[in-house]
Amino acid sequence: MAAEEERALLGPAGRDDGDGGGRSPGPPPTLPAVCDPRRLPHRLLVLALMCFLGFGSYFCYDNPAALQTQVQRDMRMNTAQFMALYAWYSWPNVVLCFFGGFLIDRVFGIRLGTIIFSIFVCVGQVIFALGALLNTFWLMDMGRFIFGIGGESLAVAQNTYAVSWFKGKELNLVFGLQLSMARIGSTVNMNIMGWMYSRVQDLLGYTGPSTLGLTLMIGGVTCLFSLACALILAYLDKRAQKLLCKEQGKTGEVIKLTDVKDFSLSLWLIFVICVCYYVAVFPFIGLGKVFFIEKFKFSSQEASAINSVCWGWLTHCLPVPCGPWWPLLFQNTSWELLMALVILCLCVSMQSIQNLGLAIIAIAAGMILDTRGYLFLEVFFSACVCLSLIAVVMLYFVNHLTGGDLNWSAKKREKLQKVAANEVEEQERLRRQNEDDLAKLQPKADDFSLRNKYLSRLGAQLPDNYSSYLSTMVHRSVLK
């Protein structure tokens, strides 16, 4: 079947021509559009699978936030212990982020790596649910730890697939869709897990660890769905590699710990901006539902809806409509700064610092809430955001004082890009000219020299005064 698909896709001109020329693109494919890796319907199918690849992970990541009241009541834990569930997710990624890309590139490959990390997510969620069923809190922590091993690395694999299948301006929309669909998983979780707990409670007739564990186990079905997407995506990617003779996607250059010493002050300021911002967002979402209930007297359903609006729809669904238009929206903004922020999200060193900050701040937020209340917690989160804002201002002045290029206008950047392009063209012209000059200096082969070369390759013994490179008989010592 695979051979038939390959022949159908490559066509008659895609076969060997018998002269060692290999395969050529051939005429338009005869495969259906949805089966042809080069056509839009098939690539849209792959894009859908990429988007749902992280759906289960993000859905289950915020299960504790959607069920905070139930978790604390059924497991008899305080807020600090509750926030430790988020800290245990972040702890493995303080170290693993340095090796996730390496494992995908050098050990597993993108396809097997994605499947393995999806399995970690599924196993972690099952252990987390079993901990609730058995009323064993340490088992729940272990489940979140295993869940974290797969969750962040799965996001790296998702981005690697995107770069492998889509190029250029397409990536704006693809990254936006991936991010939005993943966060929609968090939004759906916020709105249905409480309702699901109520249905399980009606079924069992009581509340407690068993009700909580069964609810979490049902939520884990989304992780199985994402695992199925990983399996299908691996098959389609392998099939496309065979048919189109393309290489398997890779994460890129491996970042080493020794690279930290080369980081500039501007890059460290960007680290501070991102960390201080995210440590105010993620822990707040984890505590947001009960915060809206206790401080503003919303119902449980209303609090879940508001928490999901803050988390999913405003901050992560916005990239979908804006994705293709980022170049226009930021045409007068520093492209270096934008690229730095993109790299910031993908750079393993940044990911390590971010997860370390999230792990520590999550526990700190729980302790502040237990001892000081919501007012001190709000001040604490506001201080983190203010630090992020101060770092932004410092980045502006540091860049200005060091003569950086973060604030160049679009016109100036375009001019410099043209100069750089002209330099590249000039270098290419000189290289070709040198190759032509060298080719003119090389002796031209005639029938006599070709005959001698042929006899030499056959193993025939030629006299010492024969040269296989010249058309005359000359002793080799003369050529030295």
Task: Characterize the structure shown.
The chain has 21 helices and no strands. It has helices at residues 2-10, 40-53, 55-61, 63-66, 68-75, 79-108, 110-133, 137-165, 170-204, 209-219, 221-244, 265-296, 300-313, 319-322, 326-329, 335-346, 348-371, 374-401, 410-441, 447-457, 476-479. Residues 4-28, 313-349 and 468-480 have low confidence and may be disordered.
Key traits:
single chain, 480 residues, disordered C terminus, mainly alpha
Uncertain stretches of 5 or more adjacent residues: 4-28, 313-349, 468-480
Element order: H for helix, E for strand: HHHHHHHHHHHHHHHHHHHHH
> Main beta sheet, described?
none
Task: Please state the structural category.
Answer: mainly alpha
Distance between the termini: 60 Å
Helix content: over 70%
Quick one: overall form?
globular
| Structure summary, number of beta strands | 0
**What percent strand?**
under 5%
Number of discrete helical segments: 21
Q: Could you tell me the mean pLDDT?
A: 75
Radius of gyration of CA atoms, rounded to a whole number:
30 Å
Blueprint (SSEs and pairs):
Blueprint: H1 2-10, H2 40-53, H3 55-61, H4 63-66, H5 68-75, H6 79-108, H7 110-133, H8 137-165, H9 170-204, H10 209-219, H11 221-244, H12 265-296, H13 300-313, H14 319-322, H15 326-329, H16 335-346, H17 348-371, H18 374-401, H19 410-441, H20 447-457, H21 476-479
Helix pairs in contact: 1-11, 2-8, 2-9, 2-11, 3-9, 3-11, 6-7, 6-8, 6-17, 7-8, 7-10, 7-11, 8-9, 9-10, 9-13, 12-13, 12-17, 12-18
